[in-house]
Amino acid sequence: MNFLFPTFLIGLVSIAIPIIIHLFNFRKYKKIQFTNVHFLKELKQESDSKSKLKEWLILATRILAITCLVFAFAQPFIPSKNKIVQGNKIISIYIDNSFSMENTNKKGTLLENAKQIATEIANTYNASDKFQLLSNEFEGKQQRLLAKEEFIEQLNDLKICPVTQDLKNVIKRQQDFLKNNNSKNKQLFILSDFQKNISNFSKSDIDTAIISHLIPLTSSELKNVYVDSIWFENPIQQYNTLQTIHAEIKNNGSKSIENASIKLIINNKQVSLNSFNVEANSKTSVSISFVVKENDINNGILKLEDYPITFDDEFYFCFNAKNIIKSLVINGTDSKTGGNFKSLMNNDSLFIYNENEETKIDYNLFTKTNLLILNNLKVISSGLTTEIDKLLNAGGSVIIFPNNDREFTDYNLAFQHLHLPQIIGIDTTNTTTQSINFEQGLFEGVFEKIDSRMDLPKVFDHIIFKQTTNNSFEPIIMLQNGRPLLSKYNVGNGKIYLFSSSSKLESTNYIKHSLFVPTIIKIGVLSIKTAPTYYTITANQNIEIKNDIQYKDKPLHIIKDQTKFDIIPEQRLLNNITNLYTQNQIKEAGYYKITQENKEILSVAFNYNRNESQMDFLTNEELTSNIEKLNLKNITVLDSNKGTITNTLKETNNGSKLWKLFLILALLFLLSEILIIRLFKNN
Question: How many CA atoms, within 13 angstroms, populate the side-chain half-sphere of residue 87?
Fold first, then answer.
């Protein structure tokens, strides 16, 4: 036991007063003459023993009363297990203001609970103590000390924000701030719902010299239904076509949801509505179909209604209904099948067709090409190989029909550079296709019904490739002899589709076969590097834009009309692709336009990260258990539901104060003295 004002203990010398009174009886006795006192001796002896007992009891109560009274003025206390240094304190208080703090209990939202508790914490300290208010934004203004009144004023202005922070980052931020201040008395508080996915920390993250308090906040009922992700059934969305969009819906609550509705809004108009059921702590998939009505950028929202967590009830997405496959066919000098490619692509609005002879190649077209077809070239030159490599790195696709009438030295040099297998010979044996994988890969979803009696392509001669160990090798069509007719190779960011047969009719009938058209179209569709349907708001999201216009010195802007939001992102040009980096500047979900010189280049949609949608939190017991496992003596978990945080903090800061107890004891001893006097008087 320690004393807050030990100098008052000098008052214990007053104990001598009742002792002196007891030792020296100053009462004056009056003598009375009796005729015979023989019978009074026994009574006198009995009265003397009672009188002495009475006096000793009174002395004891007076001494104890004076002692307790002196102790009360000296303000005794039992020190806290965490050593507190007397003097001005610096207190860092972090309040989790992420979306999950929209959850509610009987006191309101968890954020309002946190603000109320933080106010109570501040009021337990002295006016001279200083505070830091930290929230998920980690703003520069939060890196300074505040007086109590200013702290409470900023606390009242705190609102929900889309940013989340890992617990170890929060602790590091608070500890770094406190270490930069000279006060010897430093404490930190963390008020959060402690979601499991962000609440991990290790012993190395903790400074044991700083007293820390964790205050978990819990909601009355855990419930949240939200759209987690979306995807289109078809890779390309075209004007005036029926499209189907799929959405994955998750229910993180403890109750099942039945007959809930989800709306599809395209370009500010509701175009479809569907219902769904989802079990508790489960997920389901919902499909919604609609017709594309605009031949340009389309902005969509999938929307449902849920309370109290509402940030994830809307899912934004964008798609371009004006997708075009820009193709370039380079024909060999003696090729007679170039017309087949021209006929196919000129009659399909999905393609923009360009054609070159191998002796007159326009390399400027490569930067505007998605699909390159090399049709029976005699030579693949080093210059052409370099341009092919650039096209692949930009995400394009290349189809190669080799010329089998030549020596393959030039081909092998090009193939070596492109990481393709070497040509080792020609097989002139007639054969046919043995197997085609229609269920997955290139032909997945191309045919509604597969006829087992389908007439398969015939091959009259084909190139023999050296067996490859390339991990990116994927056979698509196999011949009866076990060799591939068509193979796919992933090279750079693009794909090469390599035929083992020339396109000449003397080598194969593939170019006249019914598989030819769907093969070319599907490869063309997969060659389009479309913008993602949506992005997630992160610290530094990367947006890729393939340059269809000449790169200019004028910077690109990301704008949001509704809020007059306009930023110039960091941008880098690599392999004909412009990479934009948001650098934590986009913080609100919605649609954004990427413009250059006020001309719209691309529309993108951003959604909030769904990590905050997960209703999985650490309990007080789990937090305490984790702290005990790490043997962290300087961290305590305070229960916000018991309403004793203020008293607990006072005991933590000043120990358990006992002055009230000693004051009560002093009064009890004085009352005991009165009772003793009255009791013995009656006897």
Answer: 8
pLDDT in tens, 378-387: 999 999 999 9
Phi, psi of 107 (to 5 degrees): -95, 0
3-state class (DSSP) for residue 670: helix
CA distance readout (Å), 359 to 245, 356, 636: 46, 8, 79
Alpha helices in 87-181 (DSSP H): 110-123, 148-156, 167-179
Strand order in the sheet with 242-251: 225-232, 242-251, 282-291
489 Rama class: left (phi>0) / alpha (psi -120 to 50) / beta: beta
Write out pLDDT tens, residues 159-187: 999 889 999 999 999 999 999 888 888 99
Nearest to 485 by CA among 527, 425, 423, 434: 434
Q: Helix, strand or coil for residue 508?
A: strand
User: DSSP E strands: which ranges in 608-660?
Assistant: 635-637, 656-657
HSE (side-chain half, CA atoms, 13 Å) at 647 = 6
Q: Which of 194, 209, 172, 237 is nearest to 95 (CA)?
A: 194
Written as six digits, the tokens of 494 are 């693009």
Q: How far apart are CA 371 and CA 366, in angstroms?
A: 9
Q: What distances in angstroms separate CA 503 from CA 68, 463, 485, one per listed residue?
A: 109, 12, 12
Q: Tell me how far apart the alpha carbons of residues 315 and 536 are, in angstroms, rounded to a whole number.
A: 10
Q: CA-CA distance, 398 to 375, in Å (whole number)?
A: 11
The tokens describing 58, both together, are 């009174």
Cα 393 from Cα 418, distance rounded (Å)? 11
Tokens 């505007």 sit at which residue?
368
How many angstroms separate the CA atoms of 532 and 74, rounded? 72
User: What span, in angstroms and rounded, lies between the C-alpha atoms of 277 and 115?
Assistant: 37
How many Å apart are CA 269 and CA 634, to the nearest integer? 57
Read off the pLDDT of residues 390-430 as tens digits, 9 standing for 90 and up: 999 888 999 999 988 767 888 999 999 999 999 999 999 99
Query: Are the C-beta atoms of residues 654 and 84 closer than 8 Å to each other?
Result: yes
Give CA 94 to chain center in angstroms. 18
Give the C-alpha separation, 262 to 437, whole Å: 37
Pick the closest to residue 285 from 338, 350, 233 (CA basis): 233
Q: Which parts of 144-241 are beta strand (E)?
A: 186-192, 211-216, 225-232
User: Cα angle vertex 450, ends 447, 451, to 5°?
Assistant: 140
265-303 pLDDT, tens per residue? 999 999 999 999 999 999 999 999 999 999 888 999 999
Report whether 239 contacts 319 (CB < 8 A).
Answer: no
Q: Is the separation of the CB atoms in 157 and 119 below 8 Å?
A: no
Q: Please, how many CA atoms are within 13 Å of residue 90, restricted to the half-sphere of its CB? A: 18
In terms of Cβ atoms closer than 10 Å to its own Cβ (0-12, 13-18, 19+), residue 290 is middle
- Contact between residue 200 and residue 623 where contact means Cβ atoms under 8 Å apart: no
- Cα torsion at 34, 39, 42, 44 (round to 10°)? -10
CA-CA distance, 16 to 30, in Å (whole number)?
29
Q: Which of 227, 224, 221 is nearest to 304 (CA)?
A: 227
Burial of 567 (0-12, 13-18, 19+ CB in 10 A): middle
Q: Which residues contact 676 (CB under 8 A, 6 or more apart)?
A: 54, 57, 58, 61
Q: Is 248 helix (H, G, I), strand (E, B) or coil?
A: strand
H-type alpha helices, 365-507: 382-393, 409-417
Tokens of 603: 């529309």
Amino acid at 663: L
**Class of residue 188 by CB neighbours under 10 A (exposed 0-12, middle 13-18, buried 19+):** buried
CA dist 316 and 534 (Å) reads: 7
Strand pairing of 257-266 and 269-278? antiparallel
SS (H, E, C) 587-603: CCCEEEEEEECCEEEEE
pTM of the model: 0.73
